[in-house]
Amino acid sequence: MTILKDILYKVSLVSTTGDMEVEVKNIVFDSRKVEEGSLFVAIPGTQVDGHDFIDKAVDTGARVIVCERLPENKSPKITWVQVKKASQALGVMASNFYDNPSHSIKVVAVTGTNGKTTTVTLLHQLFTSMGYSTGLLSTVENRINEEILPATHTTPDAVSVQALLRKMVDAGCTHCFMEASSHAIVQERIAGLKLIGSVFTNISHDHLDYHETFEEYIKAKKKLFDDLPKDAFALVNGDDKRGAVMLQNCKATPQTFALKSPADFKAKVLSNTLEGLELDINGKPVWFRLIGDFNAYNLLGVLGVAVLLGEDEDEVMQVLSGIRGAKGRFDRISIGGVTAIVDYAHTPDALENVLKTINGVRTGGEQLITVVGCGGNRDKSKRPIMAKLAVQESDKAILTSDNPRFEEPEAILQDMQAGVGPSDLRKTLTIVDRKEAIKTACMLSQVGDIILIAGKGHEDYQEIKGVKYHFDDAEVVSEFLNQLTKK
Ligand SMILES: CC(=O)N[C@H]1[C@@H](OP(=O)(O)OP(=O)(O)OC[C@H]2O[C@@H](n3ccc(=O)[nH]c3=O)[C@H](O)[C@@H]2O)O[C@H](CO)[C@@H](O)[C@@H]1O[C@H](C)C(=O)N[C@@H](C)C(=O)N[C@H](CCC(=O)O)C(=O)O
Ligand SMILES: Nc1ncnc2c1ncn2[C@@H]1O[C@H](COP(=O)(O)OP(=O)(O)OP(=O)(O)O)[C@@H](O)[C@H]1O
Ligand SMILES: N[C@H](CCC[C@H](N)C(=O)O)C(=O)O
Ligand SMILES: [Mg+2]
Q: Which ligand is nearest to the CA of 412?
């Protein structure tokens, strides 16, 4: 749809002035991307207010301005649309512009602090293996069947979400599995989307820099469930005490998965080794390639979604049993008798799970050496907690840089060091340069040892002062372990 009045269908309007039949070339929310004939949406942001760029958008050819506050001098050549919430209007308009693709594809959104990428990636692989044409929107990558499109965010912006869904529908996709980050929910990047179901994995400490309080963070996740229609399903982790909170006043069909509490989808962990997990599901033992109890939750969530979408439970378990999961999540690299594990644990809960999983499957004599850092310009309060966990649960810990972004790496490391008690200092090293830190871990390792490199998983860059330099934990650790093996 390219005619303004069609694009505004279902947008709650405050006022309009000008031609409503005007043709719109594209919808943009960044004045720097405006072209002749664009519709520019002014959004108040965390750094600046899009309303300050309305003049610039008009000068560069915008034909329609959608905003929350009208300027005093409105050019008569422009159509002015005032709305209550511009970010929300953007989602609805983008959906209309791309002919509401989510009405022609089954979209499932997954939210939670940890496990979103793992869950949607498993779902994408599962449905593809079962013969469906499937789309994926994730932190690691976006996919339309086998075609890979790079991802810049966990959840793309509202226009990109709709454009990607349109491509999926045109490519014949019947299902799309997507991550819904708390930032995306608050910023309405998924407004206008028709969901067939949503999944809640868990909630723990993260992103308090953005949401400010844990209550606000919970509220952000809950909004995904509050907005679900009656004919959708709401599948939550019944062992997380906020699972029930997500279902409060939810119109959709409530469903639960759990290892400990009574639930619609239940399993018991039979064994957990570095080779994989064995689960008892409805009295049947099933083996999976993923490692750690936390992945039992992800697998159950996936099974729940598939069954709720009408798939046969036995077939799902059989196919799921052969699937590997997402890149950079518990990736094992064994060189010269040393096992390196590259994992995206960047929250205290994730780090604790991964460390405890490794400690639970250790045979005894080997050392666990952990290399970990915390991202800059992100929640500072998780830094001492993550350092403390790494030191307490490992034989040696090397604190290093993650993505410092615009912060000084040394200052981030000081925040981390504050979590290390005096008795643990003997087994803690601080090395700012991540490559040196990984190299040191390799040099300290003996045959049989395990090196955990946490925080960056699949990332193939390190972001320092706005520049992304190539950096790949798996590549770096392999290089050093190979060098040591040759000597
Ligand atoms: C904190 C945050 O989430 N910021 C996102 C937000 O930007 P913002 O609100 O800061 O925008 P702003 O810079 O203040 O600008 C406000 C408005 O003015 C416009 N503008 C700005 C300048 C100009 O010259 N002209 C102009 O029109 C901007 O396009 C924007 O519409 O909206 C932008 C457009 O959608 C996002 O790109 C941006 O993501 C930033 C880059 C980011 O790093 N976000 C991370 C924290 C994030 O979203 N992470 C989650 C995953 C988190 C997790 O679960 O682990 C994700 O979904 O990726
Ligand atoms: N269900 C889970 N519960 C707790 N920790 C988990 C769970 N699943 C994965 N993890 C841990 O969290 C890390 C991140 O997992 P994943 O990428 O699936 O989460 P995410 O929610 O997509 O993260 P992000 O918010 O950064 O996109 C993993 O590397 C692992 O350490
Ligand atoms: N989606 C998360 C990823 C964090 C990954 C970690 N490597 C970091 O840079 O902090 C974020 O943007 O906060
Ligand atoms: Mg993710």
A: 3
CATH topology of domain 3-97: 3.40.1390
Q: What is the pLDDT of residue 214?
A: 84
Low-confidence ranges of the chain (pLDDT < 50): none
Q: Where in the chain is the domain with CATH 3.40.1190.10?
A: 101-320
Check the annotation: does 187 bind a ligand.
Answer: yes
Residue range(s) in the chain whose domain bears CATH number 3.40.1390.10:
3-97
For residue 378, give the ligand 1 atom closest to its CA.
46
For ligand 4, a single-atom ion, the residues with CB < 5 A are 116-117, 139, 154
Angstrom CA distances, 241 to 160, 224, 245, 262, 299, stand at 34, 17, 8, 13, 19
Query: For position 453, what pLDDT does the model report?
Result: 98
Q: Any known ligand binding at 268?
A: no
Q: Give the C-alpha separation, 202 to 239, whole Å.
A: 9
Supply φ then ψ for residue 190, to 5 degrees: -110, 15
Note the pLDDT tens digit of each residue in 214-266: 888 899 999 999 999 999 999 999 999 999 999 999 999 999 999 999 999 99
The segment(s) of the chain belonging to CATH 3.90.190.20 are 331-486
Give the model's pLDDT for residue 487: 61
Which architecture, in CATH terms, is 101-320?
A: 3-Layer(aba) Sandwich (3.40)
Does this complex have an ipTM over 0.95? Answer: yes
Q: Which atom of ligand 2 is nearest to the CA of 118?
A: 18
**Which ligand has an atom closest to residue 121 CA?**
2
Measured CA to CA, the distance from residue 308 to residue 312 in angstroms comes to 10
What pLDDT sits at residue 176? 98
Q: Other C-beta atoms within 10 Å of 13: how many?
A: 12
455 is in an annotated binding site: yes
**Residues contacting 252, CB < 8 A, separation 6+:** 197, 198, 225, 228, 229, 230, 231, 232, 233, 234
pTM: 0.95
* Cβ-contact 188, 360 below 8 angstroms: no
- The CATH H-level superfamily of 331-486 is Mur ligase, C-terminal domain (3.90.190.20)
Q: Cα(353)–Cα(338) distance, rounded to whole angstroms?
A: 21
CB of 38 closer than 6 angstroms to any ligand 1 atom: no
276-295 confidence digits (pLDDT tens):
999 999 889 999 999 999 99
b/e sequence 85-124, b meaning 16+ C-beta within 10 Å: ebbbbbbbbbbbbbebbbeebbbbbbbbbbbbbbbbbbbb
Say which residues have a Cβ less than 8 Å from residue 207's Cβ, sequence separation at least 6.
182, 183, 217, 378, 379
